[in-house]
Every structure is written in structure tokens, then in C-alpha cells.
Amino acid sequence: MGDNAVLACSIRPNMTLATWKINPKAAGHCTMAYRPDTDMTNRTSCRKSINWKFRPDQDLTLEIQQVGIAQEGNYTCEVLSTEGNFHMTYHLTVLVPPRLRLYCDDQGSPVCQAVAGKPAAQVSWGLGSNSHLEEEGHDNGTVTVLSRFMACGTNVTTTTCMVFHPAGNWSESIDC
């Protein structure tokens, strides 16, 4: 999320046409094409954030700037040459790191939230507890996970919440 994505596609000898077919889940289909015989490029309905990384006569790599959830989907490079047709398909999945939020509820119990992550984060506590997990899905595909620490008969004052996610791991401690 927010980084640039670079998708490679190889130039073939005797290439006659190269096309990127872009099918994001949330946005409209678009295409980008290059014809070496006329040294012409064409784009149909593509956002400005999607473009050739270099000159297409030298490199067919596609760059997506500041990737967001809307760019998730399939990206296919097709190269036509006198030797045949070559296809390379990428499925772009966007990871959204959750925001860690740790606080004490009205009863003085620690509550840990992994807010708006994609995919849903795993939440656990540094000490064993009977924690109650709740998940809330959001319209943009992110998920908030909430965990309430329920210590059974312990005198522990400081607790540590740990959040595990493909985009990174975080921990924070609180004294309620």
C-alpha cells in the first residue's frame, strides 16, 4: 500500500506488438500497447499512475505508482512476435498494514485493536489469557481485529499486545 509496483515483461526478438491488459477489481479495465514497427504507444482508459517504467522499445516493464487497494487485480503482458505469442500474468494483491491501538476499557481491562489491515491481522497477548476476538470488515476490504484481555486470577498489571501481519509485526504494552 502506497509503494510503487513494478511488473516485468520481456521483449522478444522480431516483436510485432506488446500489450498490457489491466483488470483491477475496483477500477475499470485498461490497456497499453506498443508497436515497434511504428514506434507508437497507445493507452485506453488507464490512470496516470499506471505507465511504462522505461521506453517500451527498450523495456516493457509496467510501473504502478502509489499502489492502493483499487489497483488489486490481474495484469497481463502479451507479446506477439514472429516466433509466437507470449503471455505473462500477474495477480496484484495489496497488503495494508494495520494500525495498532491499545487502551484500557471502562472496566480497566486492556483492549488491543489492529485497525484496518488487509488481510486481517492476528492479535495475541504476551501472557496467556482468555481473550475475546472480534472482527469488523470494512467496505474497502480491510479488517479491524479487536481483542479484550481477560486475565483469570492474575496480579499482572502490565500486559503486552502483539500484532502479526504479512506487512510486519508490532507490540505495545499497557498498564491498566
From TrEMBL:
Residues 1-93 form the Ig-like domain. It is found in: Membrane. Its main location: membrane. Keywords: Disulfide bond, Glycoprotein, Membrane, Transmembrane, Transmembrane helix. One of its GO terms (biological process) is regulation of neuroinflammatory response. The gene is Cd200r1b. It holds the Pfam family V-set. One of its GO terms (molecular function) is signaling receptor activity. GO terms for cellular component: external side of plasma membrane. It comes from Formicarius rufipectus. It is a single-pass membrane protein. This is MOR1B protein. The keyword Phosphoprotein does not apply. PROSITE patterns: IG_LIKE (PS50835). Belongs to the CD200R family.
